[in-house]
Amino acid sequence: MGLFTSARRLAGWTLAFSICAPATVLAEEITVFAAASMTNAMAEIEERFEAETGHDLSVSLAGSSALARQIQQGAPADVFISANPGWMDALEEDGLLEPGTRFDLLNNAIVLIAHGTDADEVEVGPDMDLPALLADGKLAMALVDAVPAGIYGKAALEHLGLWETVAPQVVQADNVRAALALVSLGEAPYGIVYATDAVADDNVTVVATFPKDSHPPIVYPAADIAGRDTGAEAEFLDYLRGPVARAAFERQGFVVVTE
Which regions form coiled coils (predicted)? Predict the structure, then answer.
């Protein structure tokens, strides 16, 4: 009788524990394609998100154009964050975005940077003699017809009437971080990058900021890629708009879009 009673009590405790214990959250893998200009912020967000949720976040960083083309070719991305709306528009037109998940996440600015830590400020405007400033050197930019930072930079130079004279001295890099590296290493005396890129490198100086009206607004949209839909994807998109991600973005100089 005693043995039977003990067995019943053990079964009751086991049932009670199974009812009261919280459900185990299954870890999921999320692949995020993000613009190269987000490198530092995404590194911080990846670490915090994984620690807080238990999910495995894999971040692939490159020029928005290269990432968008990879998605068009079937790359297994779950979330895409582009450095301009154009490439996100292309994916949306192809039916590659999960309906209703796209939103504007960040704003940025483009700046003229110089190699070193003590370069003199310059005034950017229609009267600027940019070729003379460069002397025999090059102006480093991301691909001006494909990568958002290069597109914005070219648009600003065209707006100010400076593009035609400086174009022969422009050296183009695959993405904005590669353009930043050319200036940081002294291989180009000046470059055009995002303000957030300049914050990330101690070997460059911001010598001018391009006027906002000289180029289209710099907007970073984010969206869920159609296909493999998991709760973790929605969780990550919400996390991007939360206080931890906001603080990480702002530390890198981004302006978080408020709805």
Answer: none
